[in-house]
Design goal:
The protein has 13 helices and no strands. The protein is mostly helical. The chain has two domains: 88 residues, no CATH class; 213 residues, MetI-like fold. The two termini are 13 Å apart.
């Protein structure tokens, strides 16, 4: 019952938070100059269609006016917008009125999730051993070297690594792996590497710190006094306990990696959520842009909830409190 109560409280908190964010976002966009949420601006944006197909033009105008309640009082517009977003009724894109936004998300979101998941898994596979190595050889040249590279990886944005990879495999070693497009395993190699470099630095540093802290605990000294061999001691009591703390890092890392795909997907011409969202902002496609931001926010909060639950299940000493 404790877990159920915690989940219910967190879900309610998430709904309230995202509702406030949506309401404030709507009001800011509504009162901004040349706002999309104006029948006049909407009509001018579809001016060419008015002469090409007046009937279709009127259908689109009516559709957007009804979807966003442009002819209603502002409080009705806000409530309608928040409710439609929470029920995943996103309506249609402004740039492509014939296609529902949900259809575009179904095509693009799995690509971004696949890229992000692949980069996080690769970062864990590489970063955990490096973090263990840095912790076991603390204050040595190995530790200094790994820590330096970790900090460099975290400091340089993913899109910078993406540009470097495009230059290397597009100019220096052309044809080794694809530098654009999507559809094969080879297409995912370079963008996954670009996204995972910073994550490797995060995992390495957190694993190093967590293992150093674990090896300082009283139970480690007790195990040493009982004659437990060094490597079983490190693995059974040090690394395994450190992995529990790593869950709190890996979860948010995945969520923010999805956000980071915005630039990387554009560089490698990948039709994911990042490309969809950036195109929406460039083309002033407000319905699609704000929906993309809503999805990203929802993913971050959802992953944080899963992390808290996983951490409590892995460590019974952790008490869930909303």
């Amino acid at each position: 019952m404790g877990i159920v109560r915690f989940i219910v409280k967190r879900l309610i908190s998430m709904i309230i938070t995202i509702s406030v964010v949506l309401a404030v976002s709507f009001l800011m966009m509504h009162y901004s100059p040349n706002s999309f949420f104006s029948s006049t601006t909407l009509a001018s944006g579809m001016g060419n269609l008015q002469f090409q197909d007046p009937k279709l033009y009127q259908q689109y105008i009516t559709m957007f006016e009804n979807r966003y309640g442009m002819n209603k009082p502002i409080y009705d517009q806000v409530l309608s917008y928040v409710w439609n977003s929470l029920t995943f009724n996103f309506g249609n894109s402004f740039e492509n009125p014939t296609m529902p936004i949900m259809t575009q998300l179904k095509e693009s979101l799995p690509i971004s999730i696949e890229l992000s998941l692949g980069s996080v898994i690769l970062a864990v596979i590489i970063g955990l051993p490096l973090g263990v190595l840095a912790a076991l050889y603390r204050n040595s040249w190995i530790d200094s070297l790994l820590t330096t590279f970790s900090m460099i990886g975290q400091a340089i944005p993913a899109f910078v690594f993406a540009v470097i990879l495009v230059l290397l495999f597009g100019v220096v070693w052309p044809g080794v792996v694809p530098i654009n497009g999507w559809g094969t395993f080879a297409d995912a190699i370079l963008p996954t590497i670009a996204l995972c470099v910073g994550n490797i630095g995060v995992v390495t540093r957190y694993m190093r710190g967590s293992l150093i802290e674990s090896m300082r605990q009283d139970y480690i000294r007790t195990a040493k006094a009982k004659g437990v061999p060094y490597w079983p001691l490190v693995w059974k009591h040090g690394i395994r306990n450190s992995l529990t703390a790593m869950v709190t890092v890996i979860g948010p890392t995945f969520a923010f990696t999805v956000v980071g795909t915005v630039w990387v997907e554009n560089i490698f011409s990948i039709p994911g959520l990042g490309t969809l969202m950036s195109g929406a902002f460039v083309n002033d496609d407000i319905p699609l842009a704000i929906t993309s931001v809503f999805i990203l926010s929802l993913m971050v909060m959802g992953v944080n909830l899963l992390v808290d639950l996983s951490y409590a299940l892995m460590d019974p000493r952790v008490k869930l409190e909303a």
